[in-house]
Amino acid sequence: MDRLEPGATQDILTARGSRPDYCHASVYLNPSPWTYTSGKQKVRASLASAQSAGMLLVLVRVGGCGV
């Protein structure tokens, strides 16, 4: 992607994978700050500020590893 419009919020899944031991990971570009920060007002404010400044956010979610 070349650029995102300022203020645009949408999760764009760019990569994901898993292993036989149930470890998995996903990478999202431009995640919505509201989806992943319930109850964390300072984090929400920081992420919203970064997005409004035109910064591209990247979210990496990992789960199931070491269980």
Spatial sequence of strands, sheet with the most strands: 1-2-3
The first-to-last residue Cα distance is 36 Å
Low-pLDDT parts are: none
Topology order in helix (H) and strand (E) letters? EEHHE
Tally of DSSP helical segments: 2
What coarse outline follows from CA principal-axis ratios? elongated
- Give the % helix: 10-25%
Helix/strand structural class? alpha+beta
Rg over alpha carbons: 14 Å
Strand content: 25-35%
- How many strand elements? 3
Main beta sheet strand tally, sense and closure: 3 strands, antiparallel
- Mean pLDDT score: 79
Description:
By secondary structure, this protein is of the alpha+beta class. Helix content is 24%, strand content 28%. It has helices at residues 33-36, 41-52; strands at 12-18, 24-29, 58-63. A 3-stranded antiparallel beta sheet has the order 1-2-3, with no helix packed on it. The protein is elongated and about 40 Å long. The chain starts with 11 loop residues before the first strand and ends with a strand. The mean pLDDT is 79.
Descriptive keywords:
single chain; 67 residues; alpha+beta; three-stranded antiparallel sheet; 2 helices; 3 strands; elongated
Write a compact overview of the structure shown.
The protein is an alpha+beta fold and 67 residues long.
Secondary structure elements and pairings:
Elements: E1 12-18, E2 24-29, H1 33-36, H2 41-52, E3 58-63
Antiparallel strand pairs: 1-2, 2-3
